[in-house]
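Inverse folding, one chain.
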């Protein structure tokens, strides 16, 4: 989890640095190219490239459209609002999963899931402090990113029933490279990264994959009820980064709202863990 926290935080800093000369579509195009090289290299070393052929192309497309939209909105939000606010609103993603799972996975919307979603919404209002007269585009983008990541997680859950990790990551990088190229080239003007931008792009490409690898390993080594609360350490870490590098203030409302969102996630996680144990015993 320490590796995941460091990776997500470094990706945010690198994302801000590289957007001085690249838009989000160009950023994701180059990041995906780096991802393809990494996935193929690791897959070849592990002998899992034979798992790349897929039986669910349509589901991969839905999953990657959702993730592509979420990533674009996340990178935009990084430059529009303080880093701590971006991360706090991103933490609503598990609550969106609880809402989307009944629609996509056929899971039941239980009372505890509905209650967790409502409590999380209160946390969103505290963090975003929406003003009907002037809605903050950055906060809306961060919320949209969380919804996109939630959709990606739900579709990924469906894909894991039939597809391997190598297959999912391969089509993730290939499809998002194609989407990034199409969107970045819509105006027939794709910027070529400068010499100083390539190291930042390498950080984004490597950190993104490494963060998810660390998170997956953590969940394999310890129960989710222990692992997931540790992910919220990203908030104070990124708040300190924002203060040190960008002179962003430490706002009490962001931490208060994040605590409410964290409580909603933890409440939902405890209920789901208890329900899983009861089913296994029964």
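Residues assigned per position:
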């Amino acid at each position: 989890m320490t590796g995941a926290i460091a990776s997500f935080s470094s990706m945010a800093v690198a994302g801000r640095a590289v957007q001085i000369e690249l838009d989000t579509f160009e950023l994701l195009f180059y990041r995906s190219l780096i991802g393809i090289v990494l996935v193929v290299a690791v897959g070849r070393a592990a002998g899992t490239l034979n798992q790349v052929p897929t039986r669910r192309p349509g589901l991969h497309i839905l999953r990657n459209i959702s993730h592509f939209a979420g990533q674009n909105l996340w990178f935009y939000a990084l430059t529009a609002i303080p880093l701590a606010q971006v991360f706090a609103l991103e933490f609503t993603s598990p609550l969106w999963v609880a809402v989307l799972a009944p629609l996509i996975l056929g899971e039941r919307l239980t009372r505890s899931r509905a209650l967790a979603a409502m409590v999380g919404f209160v946390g969103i209002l505290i963090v975003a402090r929406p003003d009907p007269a002037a809605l903050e585009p950055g906060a809306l983008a961060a919320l949209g990113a969380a919804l996109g990541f939630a959709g990606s997680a739900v579709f990924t859950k469906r894909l894991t029933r039939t597809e391997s990790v190598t297959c999912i990551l391969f089509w993730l990088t290939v499809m998002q490279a194609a989407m990034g190229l199409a969107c970045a080239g819509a105006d027939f003007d794709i910027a070529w990264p400068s010499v100083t931008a390539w190291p930042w792009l390498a950080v984004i490409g490597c950190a993104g994959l490494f963060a998810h690898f660390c998170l997956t390993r953590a969940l394999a080594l310890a129960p989710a009820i222990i692992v997931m609360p540790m992910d919220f350490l990203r908030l104070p870490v990124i708040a300190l980064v924002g203060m040190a590098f960008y002179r962003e203030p430490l706002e009490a409302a962001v931490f208060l709202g994040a605590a409410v969102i964290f409580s909603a996630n933890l409440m939902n996680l405890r209920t789901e863990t208890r329900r899983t144990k009861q089913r296994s015993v029964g």
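The mean pLDDT is 86. The two ends are 32 Å apart (CA to CA).
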